[in-house]
Specification:
The complex is a heterodimer of chains A (112) and B (147). Chain A has 112 residues and is an alpha+beta fold. In chain A, 35% of the residues lie in helices and 22% in strands. Chain B contains 8 helices and no strands.
């Protein structure tokens, strides 16, 4: 057994948002999080596991909403964590809160 | 408003060169500063959390790390904004939200429907609810030491 954490998927910055998230080939999962958000601590390892589970099929990134408030505002983020799935820069799904892994896999399977 | 003014002035002491030319936008600089919340505010929010859990019949998360992070987040906002604004939301304007009060802890959804999406106060039927309504300062420090 191994434990996944948030270091398994990279942080998107203002400069890389376009190239990594919006212009990527295939589906992209983005976790919007904040440093002092408790439920974010619960979802980090789940996203870490999904990153490995769907390696080659799904790209996973995270956005710190305190560091990148303009991206969060642009996508209407309110509750944190919010997980969004994009294809070709278009938002396909959004999941709010520290949900079970099965909820996220259901969202991912829909777009694969 | 008085509280906000006090909070910003106490922070501004250390960085007068940054605050003076930026006028109204100085709050944003203060809010985004990555510092540990003060021990005083952590203790205030720790005690508040224990009291409000008992009062509302709710329990802390089985993973007290979640509880600790949220308490520190509330303390951080108390330091920077003068009010314990919920740390599990994104706001276009934090000082304005803190002044408005809807998301100041305990927020309106918590007071009206016992809904805390930050998972600080969990009703007993919640899968993540533990059995405790108490958390020590040591627990908070230990579980947030590696952040």
């Amino acid at each position: 057994m191994f434990s996944a954490d948030s270091s398994f998927y990279p942080t998107v910055t203002g400069a890389t948002w376009q190239s990594l998230a919006l212009k990527a080939e295939g589906p992209v999962l983005v976790e919007f999080w904040a440093p002092w958000c408790g439920p974010c601590r619960m979802i980090h390892p789940v996203i870490g596991e999904l990153t490995m589970q769907y390696a080659g099929k799904l790209k996973c990134f995270k956005v710190n909403t305190d560091d990148r408030p303009s991206i969060a505002t642009q996508y209407g983020i309110r509750s944190i964590p919010t997980i969004m799935i994009f294809i070709n820069g278009e938002k396909k799904d959004a999941v709010i809160g520290a949900v079970p892994k099965t909820t996220l896999t259901a969202s991912i399977e829909k777009v694969l | 408003m008085t509280l906000q003014a006090q909070a910003s002035s106490s922070f501004a002491v250390g960085i007068p060169s940054l605050t003076s030319p930026l006028g109204g936008s100085r709050h944003r600089l203060v809010v985004r500063a990555k510092v540990e919340p003060s021990d005083k505010s952590v203790e205030i929010m720790r005690k508040f959390s224990e009291q409000y859990a008992r009062k509302s019949g709710t329990y802390f998360c089985v993973d007290k790390g979640v509880t600790s992070v949220v308490i520190k987040g509330l303390a951080d906002h108390k330091d920077s904004l003068g009010a314990p604004l919920c740390p599990c939301r994104h706001y276009d304007d934090k000082p304005a939200e803190a002044g408005q009060g809807f998301w100041n802890c305990p927020c309106v959804p918590m007071r009206e429907r016992k809904e805390c999406h930050c998972m600080l106060f969990l009703t007993p039927d919640n899968d993540f609810a533990g059995k405790e309504q108490a958390i020590s300062l040591e627990e908070i420090k230990e579980s947030t030491a590696n952040m």
